[in-house]
Design brief:
The protein is mainly alpha-helical. 75% of the residues lie in helices and 0% in strands. The protein is elongated, with a radius of gyration of 17 Å.
């Protein structure tokens, strides 16, 4: 199945836009002090929420434009993440490795928790667990998106 070159160029541009947002989040994260005060926990939680939101927006874009749609059902958020690990022959390569899936999954779970609780209920240990991997994880997500972006550009050039 040949994919429209203009579509691939647009998708790559939208992915770049989300990646610029990830860079902004990393800058904000690095500016925060390493203390467990309530307002700092809330700020970090918000950054982690925004991180996963940017990742999910990118995955939704890929699913809608290249996979034929976003998964349906109650667990669609997790299934969307799973789908990004699949090699869809004649459509697209995997976006994320299984290892990267395992590292991103806690941020999906946290985002759900963050949306359903009050900020004063945040626990420092839960934030620290995410904080420890966050900078490296953003780098790994960006590296995976670099590879996917390169595939988009190559495919658009020959499409």
């Amino acid at each position: 199945m040949k994919t429209n070159a203009m579509l691939l160029i647009r998708v790559s541009g939208e992915i770049e836009s989300e990646r610029a947002g990830l860079e902004k989040l990393m800058s904000e994260f690095h500016d925060l002090p390493h203390v467990d005060e309530s307002y700092i926990l809330r700020a970090k939680a918000s950054i982690f929420h925004d991180f996963y939101t940017a990742v999910e927006r990118t995955m939704r874009l890929i699913a809608e434009e290249l996979n034929g749609g976003v998964p349906k059902g109650e667990q669609w958020h997790k299934q969307l993440l799973v789908d990004m690990t699949l090699d869809l022959e004649d459509l697209r390569p995997p976006v994320f490795s299984k290892e990267l899936f395992e590292r991103v999954l806690p941020f999906l779970r946290f985002r759900h928790l963050f949306r359903t609780m009050y900020g004063y209920e945040l626990k420092a240990d839960r934030i620290r667990a995410l904080e420890d991997d966050f900078p490296a994880l953003v780098g790994a997500v960006n590296a995976a998106l670099d590879l996917f972006y390169a595939w988009l550009k190559r495919t658009a050039a020959i499409g």
